[in-house]
TrEMBL record:
NCBIfam families: sensory_box (TIGR00229). Residues 113-183, 367-403, 615-661 form the PAS domain. PANTHER family: PAC DOMAIN-CONTAINING PROTEIN, PHYTOCHROME-LIKE PROTEIN CPH1. It comes from marine sediment metagenome. Residues 65-116, 186-238, 316-366, 564-614 form the PAC domain. SMART domains: PAC, PAS. PROSITE patterns: PAC (PS50113), PAS (PS50112). GO terms for molecular function: protein histidine kinase activity. This is histidine kinase. Keywords: Kinase, Phosphoprotein, Transferase. Its EC number is 2.7.13.3. It holds the Pfam family PAS_9.
Length: 661
């Protein structure tokens, strides 16, 4: 039996000498070389101590023991052995030992490989779990255990269902069946539940470990927490939704141009051009150039090409005319720059219709030209003083009569104290709200001239800013001239149209704002984003507060009966009030309704409209104040202005005269 045993079997006497051995041929020795020899001659030195201790325990206690060692065969290979030591008893006394040494080389190698695998697996930055076919866990690495809130020791023997709630387990069971049927699955997103009940997503791969006959014994999975990836996807989706909400609501036309093809356009861009979105998105390469007026085509195509290629030396802002589908030309302000779109450069184009602005500017120029012509055509001196009492405007007749007055005061030009006293008194009364008409005698170039001086206040927003006056020379003819009014300041050119101010309000807190919104309100972005709930209402004047707060509340709650567009004044940080055009609507923000607010600064437009009205009033007041009958016609022979004196002279109503050619 010992001869046929797969193990090495030794028998030792009390002195630990060999008295029997099987398989001596494997050692390539003869019996005489082994029998009677100390067993330590055949045990490597490094194992002597562990073997001796094992022998002593058996001799002393009479119980089985074991030790481990290795042996180098003649072919140079190392074999590892587990040696089991038992007592040989004679009447209850240990008189010798029997040693059975099993070759565990293959097991040792497997253990080493397993040890390497475990070392790598335990320290992997992804989860590894192994369970039997029933789902009982036999191994998890540190990542897999800790990501679920456990220690590895807690999980061995537990069912893998410990990682899933009732809703998640249904999908897990389907994947388990797929694994058994097909042998693997790849890149499956699976919901997991931590020990504390919180849920998170993992991306999983699975394989089966089969026996020699292909029967599944174990299920092995690798998994990685994709919470951050899912959050990034969510934020990207929210960002895209925010952009589309803003773009769809924006008064700006927005499009993205790549390879001379419109890759994206919003509804406003379609509206400005007079096409439908479907038409625009079907345009062939370069077809969009048909909307550019011929005089701008070379410039626009060069700029578009550079920005689509990401080249330098581009012009980010310019004004051009475009051709609508109807053939009508309109003015637009264009802002464009290179962006990265789908991994390649593209041209982001934003523009808005400034036709109204151009029309207002033209009306202002025409009004100023009319006013200037009317003032210059007066047959008597005209002057305008500011609040400090300095002359800021005069016509040619005033210059001929009094010399250059600009920048001077009455004290600088009065010929004597009596004249100065009269002028200062008149000016003071007029700045108090009076209109004065009086006769006066002046010595001009050594000659006496008689004038009717008419001096009137100029009101802007119910406040006197200037006084204007005329000196009607009645020395040669006694008639009154038209009283003139001139606005305090020249109409300013409307500033280049800027982008809209944009913000999102939720729970009465500014959740998002852009730089233009900060600029319009005169605050920094940091100040606005740190405002407490309701604090933004400090920018709303008292007269509009109830209306604005009601609208904001409804839109934040997603209620009906709202007004999407209105004009109001806002109070800047400096205390200044400005007019804005408000476009606002309910949007979905972070899963809840919010108020998307877009501001358009229309302060300049409001001022321009007011000044245009004031200019017309100045002209009409001037014409009406004169004693002469006056009729003004345009280059087409149409009556533009007349005064009541002219109507009285011709015994016809002033309104009927102005209706005639």
């Amino acid at each position: 039996m010992a001869k046929n045993s797969p193990d090495f079997i030794f028998t030792l006497d009390k002195d630990e000498r060999i008295i029997y051995i099987n398989k001596i041929e494997i050692l390539n020795l003869e019996m005489k070389d082994v029998i009677g020899k100390p067993v330590y001659d055949f045990i490597a030195d490094k194992y002597h101590e562990s073997a001796r201790d094992s022998f002593k325990r058996v001799f002393k206690l009479g119980q089985n023991d074991r030790y481990y060692s290795d042996f180098i065969y003649d072919d140079g290979t190392i074999h590892y052995f587990e040696s089991r030591v038992g007592p040989i008893l004679n009447e209850g006394i240990v008189v010798g030992l029997t040693i059975s040494s099993t070759d565990i080389t293959e097991r040792k190698k497997a253990e080493e490989e397993l040890k390497k695998f475990k070392s790598i697996s335990d320290n992997a930055n992804y989860g590894i779990g192994i369970s039997d076919i029933e789902g009982k866990l036999v191994y998890t690495n540190n990542y897999f255990a800790s990501i679920h809130g456990y220690k590895t020791g807690e999980l061995i023997g537990k069912n893998l269902s410990i990682f899933y709630n009732d809703k998640q387990i249904e999908r897990v069971m389907k994947l388990k069946q797929k694994l058994i049927d097909e042998g693997s699955y790849n890149a499956e997103e699976v919901g997991h539940t931590r020990k504390n009940g919180t849920m998170f997503p993992m991306l999983m791969n699975g394989i089966t470990i089969n026996d020699d006959k292909g029967k599944p014994l174990f299920m092995a999975t690798t998994a990685i927490d994709i919470t951050e990836i899912k959050e990034a996807e969510k934020k990207l989706k929210e960002s895209e939704e925010k952009f589309r909400n803003i773009a769809d609501q924006s008064l700006l036309g927005i499009c993205i141009l790549q390879d001379d093809v419109i890759k994206y356009a919003n509804q406003r861009m379609a509206d400005i051009n007079g096409y439908s979105l479907e038409e625009i998105m079907k345009w062939l390469p370069k077809e969009f150039y048909k909307t550019v007026a011929a005089e701008s085509l070379d410039f626009v195509s060069e700029q578009a090409k550079k920005k689509q290629l990401g080249l330098p030396d581009t012009i980010p802002q310019y004004t051009i005319q475009i051709i609508k589908k109807s053939g009508k030309k309109i003015w637009v302000e264009n802002f464009s720059k290179t962006i990265n779109f789908n991994g390649r450069p593209a041209d982001l184009v934003t523009f808005f219709d400034i036709s109204d602005k151009k029309e207002v500017e033209q009306n202002l120029r025409e009004s100023e030209a009319k006013l200037s012509t009317a003032i210059e055509s007066l047959p008597f001196p005209f002057f305008l003083l500011d609040e400090s009492g300095r002359y800021i405007m005069q016509n040619t007749n005033a210059k001929k009569t009094w010399g250059d007055l600009i920048g001077k005061t009455p004290k600088d030009i009065a010929k004597d104290e009596e004249t100065l006293s009269l002028w200062l008194s008149n000016n003071s009364r007029v700045f108090s709200g009076e209109t004065i008409a009086s006769e006066a005698e002046y010595n001009i170039n050594g000659e006496s001239h008689y004038f009717i001086d008419i001096v009137s206040p100029v009101y802007i927003d119910d406040k006197i800013h200037n006084i204007l006056g005329v000196n009607i020379d009645i020395t040669a003819r006694k008639h009154l001239e038209q009283e003139l009014r001139e606005s305090e300041e020249k109409f300013r050119n409307i500033a280049d149209q800027s982008l809209m101010g944009i913000c999102i309000v939720q729970d009465d807190i500014i959740k998002y704002t852009n730089q233009r919104m900060a600029d319009i309100n005169g605050y920094s972005l940091e100040e606005i984003m740190n405002w407490q709930p309701h604090e933004f209402y400090k920018t709303i004047p008292t007269e509009s507060l109830d209306f604005v707060s009601e609208q904001a509340k409804k839109k934040q709650l997603g209620l009906s009966g709202v007004i999407p567009q209105y004009q109001l004044q806002v109070i800047k940080k400096s205390g200044e009030k400005i007019w804005v055009e408000n476009f606002s609507k309910t949007i979905n923000f972070n899963g809840r309704p919010a108020d998307l607010v877009i501001f358009f600064d229309i302060n300049d437009k409001k001022k321009a409209e007011q000044r245009l009205k004031e200019s017309e009033e100045i002209l009409r007041a001037t014409l009406e104040s004169t004693a002469d009958g006056i009729l003004a016609v345009d280059d087409r022979g149409r009556v533009t202005h007349t005064n009541s004196k002219f109507a009285d002279m011709w015994h016809i109503s002033q309104e009927l005269i102005e209706e005639r050619d």
